[in-house]
Amino acid sequence: MKTTNPQHRLLALLSIPAFLFLVIPTAIVVPVALNDSRYITFPPEGISFGAVAGFFADRAWTSALTASLQSAAIAVVIGVLLGATAAIGLHGRKFPGQPAVVDLILAPMIVPTVVLALAFYQFFISIGMVGSIVPIGLAHAVIATPYVYLTTRASLAGLNPALVRSGQRRVSVPVRCLSCAMSICPSSCPA
Questions:
Q1: In sequence order, which residues have a C-beta less than 8 Å from that of residue 117 and are 6 or more positions away?
Q2: CA distance 59 to 65
Q3: How far apart are CA 136 and CA 72, in angstroms?
Q4: What is the distance between the alpha carbons of residues 96 and 107, in angstroms, rounded to a whole number?
Q5: Which of 1, 59, 125, 126 gets the most CB atoms within 10 Å of its CB?
Q6: Contact (CB, 8 A) for 138 and 78
Q7: What is the mean pLDDT of each run of 10 residues along the chain (191 residues)?
Q8: Coil, strand, or helix at residue 92?
Q9: Backbone phi, psi, residue 45, to 5°
């Protein structure tokens, strides 16, 4: 899509250094990971998948990968459910204490990560959940929820409240939820 707007061109021009800042490390790490040498060398001497095969052959690495994927799945499911539900539920509604509710949802973004980690650790020790994947997933869900909330709220910003009301006709609860979701979801997706 070609743009003639000078602001869009300026934004595209300014985004190139950020893009390069994110891509160049990956462009270096991937060839180094596939290096034929036993030691880290750049530029690579040859291409070999030995390090990748060694990763998947080592039980310690694969169990760590499995634990990370399990905790990520827990965090994603809970974070998306809580964040999106909160954004949809608070969209277009004003009530006393609403700023306090929004502040509570956004609090994990404001509190330093080290403080959150220590608080989570102390909490999970007190209830005896240390040593499993579930508390790690729950802690990451708490951290992810504000980001989901903000993203969903931004998507809903241009949504016509009449669409939401039309999706909340007086029908059974499952049909009402499906109807409301069908009226909100297409409008909240990026174009």
A1: 139
A2: 10
A3: 9
A4: 19
A5: 125
A6: yes
A7: 74 89 87 79 78 88 94 96 90 85 92 93 91 92 95 84 62 52 54 49
A8: coil
A9: -80, -25
